[in-house]
Specification:
binds FE2/S2 (inorganic) cluster; alpha+beta; 18 strands; 440 residues; 10 helices; 6-stranded antiparallel beta sheet; 2 domains; Naphthalene 1,2-dioxygenase Alpha Subunit, Chain A, domain 1; Rieske Iron-sulfur Protein; binds fe (ii) ion; 27% strand; 9-stranded mixed beta sheet
Length: 440
């Protein structure tokens, strides 16, 4: 273990970057301390990804998504177990778009092949003529089989173990990345003490850029200064932080302390590769709130984030219903992600731009955790090459239309949420008031 103290305050680069913000926010990281435990994060992008909340998997509905541009489908089999299959029919490669699911059996829309939850074809006679393959019928039957990744359901999320090595037999798939890294109780949280709100958000930008955004506290004050309901986070606040970074093979954690009150913590950000970020304050066992962000690399310039905001306060359901807490919280989420999207969609044109080239981008002392992330990401991408040999539909627009379904990219849900707030407010407050005025 190594401890280092470096003061960046007099850095020339730092003064340069702060200049444009003279009239507004100035947020500075004055010094940082690094605790490096076995030095660096384990390299690799393959492993468990949280894909969606459990409730998104509706009865007899196929849930389409992709990972690193590989088209995939989630659904529940007849025993309600979660399945993740490649979106390719093993007969002649049709997509299951417009296919059906009934009691765990998927029917392909092209020739009507039906696949059981185990993945084998149940009606081979439908897709071949028995006399043509008479001598080899059984062998042929064995080869027509869905290709799958391991999927599990835990704490209200569906997780998929992605490695680009799908298999027809799930027992053949190894899981080298333990899912326990992701689990909240393994990270010290008693998650049963919390209630939460959640949203899913889709972006047409690179996955890694969104992670970078969530590791970056400096933008909170500037980009979200008018939206985050915290008086200490706004455009006119001037703050200095000291930063303590903890690096282990499983995670990087950065803790920000106020410079003028060294024991007072502003926030902690913990990155658990490949896709999870935890944001909270203080010791996990006592944290009043916890934000869990799961990042899903749908494809090149397509990404999804699941945001869950857990809290130990304002837990009364009746009261929350009355003040439309869930809907208003969603509204804040959507606004925050709209603000980020304004930056993200123009910042990234393709995923290659995510990499830091020292000539083009100057990382400063404040960006230390981001620097760690990029180094890890570059090495991990070189190792696993997740974008190599992508299987893509001929018409990518088809995929975008089916797979991207949440704001800010698709506005529909955000508008529906705003209408719901107006409708419920009217029903709860305005309508009784009008009724009361009419009768007196
Ligand atoms: S491609 Fe699916 S049944 Fe033929
Ligand atoms: Fe942001």
């Amino acid at each position: 273990m190594e401890n280092r103290q470096i003061n960046f305050f007099k850095s020339k680069d730092l003064n340069t970057v702060l200049k444009p913000f003279k009239k507004g926010t100035v947020v500075k990281i004055d010094s940082f301390e690094i605790r490096e435990n076995q030095n660096e994060l384990k390299i690799g992008l393959f492993g468990w990804y949280a894909i969606c909340p459990s409730k998104e998997l509706k009865k007899d509905k196929l849930f389409y998504f992709s990972l690193y541009d590989e088209p995939l489908v989630l659904y529940r089999d007849e025993n309600k177990n979660v399945r993740c299959i490649k979106n390719i029919c093993p007969h002649r490669g049709a997509s299951f778009f417009e296919g059906t699911l009934s009691d765990g059996v998927i029917t392909c829309p092209y020739h009507g092949a039906k696949f059981s939850s185990g993945g084998s074809c149940q009606n081979l006679d439908r897709i071949t003529c028995r006399h043509i393959v008479d001598n080899n019928y059984d062998n042929y039957a064995k080869r027509i089989h869905l290709s799958q990744y391991k999927a599990i359901e835990k704490n209200g999320y569906i997780f998929v173990h992605f490695s680009k090595k799908s298999d027809t037999d799930l027992n053949n798939i190894s899981e080298d990345a333990p899912i326990s890294n992701y689990e909240l109780y393994e990270n010290g949280f008693t998650h049963k003490d919390y209630v939460y709100e959640e949203v899913l958000v889709d972006f047409k930008c690179d996955w890694s850029r969104i992670i970078e955004n969530h590791l970056d506290i400096l933008h909170l004050f500037w980009v979200h200064g008018d939206t985050i309901p915290d008086k200490d986070v706004n455009k006119n606040v001037l703050v200095s932080f000291n930063q303590k970074i903890n690096v282990t093979p499983q995670y990087i954690e950065s803790i920000y302390y106020y410079k003028n009150e060294p024991t007072k913590e502003f926030i902690r950000i913990k990155y658990i590769p490949p896709g999870r970020i935890l944001i909270y304050k203080g010791d996990p066992s006592a944290a009043r709130y916890l934000q869990v962000l799961d990042h899903i690399p749908l494809g090149n310039n397509n990404a999804r984030v699941i945001v869950r905001h857990y809290r130990k306060f304002l837990k009364n359901k009746l009261f929350n219903n009355l003040i439309l807490f869930k809907e208003n919280q969603r509204k804040i989420f959507y606004k925050i992600f709209d603000e980020d999207y304004m930056i993200l969609k123009t910042q990234t044109y393709n995923h290659n731009m995510g990499f830091i080239s020292k000539d083009e981008i100057k990382l400063l002392g404040e960006d230390r955790i981001i620097n760690y992330f990029w180094k890890w990401y570059k090495k991990s991408e070189d190792k696993d090459e997740p974008w190599k040999n992508n299987i893509k539909s001929q018409n990518l627009d088809v995929y975008d239309k089916v797979i991207l379904k949440y704001p800010p990219e698709i506005k529909k849900l955000e508008i529906a949420n705003n209408i719901e707030i107006i409708r419920k407010t009217f029903v709860r407050f305005a309508a009784p008031l009008i009724f009361f005025m009419l009768i007196i």
